[in-house]
Amino acid sequence: MSKRLISDDKATGIKTYLDYDGTDDNATIVKEQDVTGIVEYNKAAFDAAPKRWGEFTHVGRIPMTVYMELKEKGILDDQQELVKWLNDPNNAMWRTRPGNV
User: Fold this and answer.
1) Measured on CA atoms in the order 1, 67, 60, 91, is the torsion positive or negative?
2) Residues 58 and 89 in one domain
């Protein structure tokens, strides 16, 4: 298998690779993004967030690669599924507020 960089978007930090497996002649497009900055921002925002919720409260920040994955799975188009995803403890790193959505 060989992984070849085909795109490096400096604005989003997304790198796109072509991953080719010569044993079965299969190619896959892989997108990667360094999310360290987003996670650190979210931690600081979460710690500084007031306990009370109001209308139009900012509850999270997700990287573009996660956004695209959620869109592909249809989660962004289904409000109940999005709320469930946001409240899932496995996705806590993308939250900027405590509590449930």
Assistant:
1) negative
2) yes
Amino acid in position 34: D
Q: Tell whether 48 and 25 lie within a shared domain.
A: no
Q: Which two tokens stand for residue 83?
A: 């709320």
Rounded Cα–Cα distance for residues 92 and 79 (Å):
18
Same domain, residue pair 41 and 28: no
**Single pTM value for the model:** 0.75
pLDDT in tens, 47-92: 998 877 777 788 999 999 999 999 999 999 999 999 999 999 999 9
What is the total count of domains within the chain?
2
**Rounded distance between C-alpha atoms, residue 57 and residue 7, angstroms:** 35
Per-residue pLDDT, 50? 84
Cβ partners under 8 Å of residue 14, min gap 6: 7, 31, 32, 33, 64, 65
In a shared domain, residues 53 and 97 = yes
> What's the full length of the chain, in residues?
101
* Domain carrying residue 50: 36-101
